[in-house]
Amino acid sequence: MAELQTNLFVRKQLDQRRALYLGELISDGVEMKDPIEVTDRGGVQNIVVDGRHRKEGYELAGASETKAKVLEFEDEAEMIAYAYRANVGGSLPPTQEDTEHTIMLLLERSEPMKRISERLGLPAGMARKYINSVKSKTSRQKLMKAAAAITDGGLTVAKAAEQYDVEVDKLKEVLSGHKRKHKQGIAEIQRGLTKTYKSLGQKNAALIRSLLEKCEDGDVTERQVREIFAHIEQLQKQSAHSVADWKKRFDSANEKTAKTA
Fold first, then answer.
1. Which InterPro entries does this entry report, sorted A to Z (predicted)?
2. 210 in helix, strand or coil?
3. How many helices (H) and strands (E) does the chain have?
4. What domain range is 151 assigned to?
């Protein structure tokens, strides 16, 4: 399992409930019907093309190995399109966000609209709609990154506009309140996270104290208490996996930005 690389993302996010469900099935001895599909590319071996939720399930179940099928592709665009189509019609088909994310990956690789439509099996009109939406969002993201490069990175407006390929006038439009909103927003998010985790920790502590008291009084058994501990640990493990996955997606997206900037 440790050899499987998950740096190809054709879904916007993992469905953690599905991953947990698969993990429970695997823990109970249920054999997964299809092997995880992998490929080797750019000097990186065992890149997971299809089977991210199964991989997550195996890891949650504590499995150390699984069967994998090795595939070959002519280029990255073909690999991305295959990974997308593998999910279409399955038990967890791509969402609108997944489709937009996949199209963004193909646009980053200079795939034309007609080719994207053919690769993903989308009608031309639908593909055009998705592509226009992705381009609009991408332009907005580039503007915000350019603004951050000025307020946080010390670049001039002209330099940031050139580096992120945005119009100077549009960049100036978003700069007026960007620094203030950016700093206040991060501080508010941090306070909110601290409050949430503190509240959850207090609730868990109260629950555990109550359980221990009931165990001492004979109202619950030692086995039942251990089951609760195991369940809490499983939830914490799932949460850690989720954060690690989001961080890996963030790192991957920013690596692409650094290469194109």
1. ParB/Sulfiredoxin_sf
2. helix
3. 10, 3
4. 133-176
For residue range 49-88, what is the model confidence (pLDDT) as tens digits?
999 999 999 999 999 999 999 999 999 999 999 999 998 9
Is 87 a domain residue? Answer: yes
Closest by Cα among 62, 77, 63 to 112: 77
pTM recorded for the entire structure: 0.66
Q: Structural domain tally of the chain?
A: 3
Tell me, what's the pLDDT at 68? 93
CA angle 177, 180, 183 (to 5 degrees): 140
DSSP string, 35-72: PEEEEEETTEEEEEEE-HHHHHHHHHTT-----EEEE-
- Residue 129: which residues within 8 A CB-CB, separation 6 or more? none
Tokens of 191: 């306070």
Which residues, 6+ apart, have CB-to-CB distance to 32 below 8 Å?
22, 25, 26, 54, 57, 66
Burial 74-101 (b: 16+ CB within 10 A, else e): eebbebbbbbbbbbeeeeeebeeebbbb
Percent of the chain with pLDDT over 70: 93
Do 209 and 244 lie in one domain? The reply is: yes
What letter represents residue 83's amino acid? Answer: A
pLDDT of residue 179: 47
The whole-angstrom separation of Cα 99 and Cα 86 is 13
**Which phi-psi region, left, alpha or beta, contains residue 111 (left: φ > 0; alpha: ψ -120 to 50)?**
beta
CA gap 147, 88 in Å, rounded:
37
pLDDT of residue 259: 53
Indicate whether 255 pLDDT > 70: no
Report residue 146's pLDDT band, with 50, 70 and 90 as the boundaries: very high
Whether residues 215 and 115 fall in one domain: no
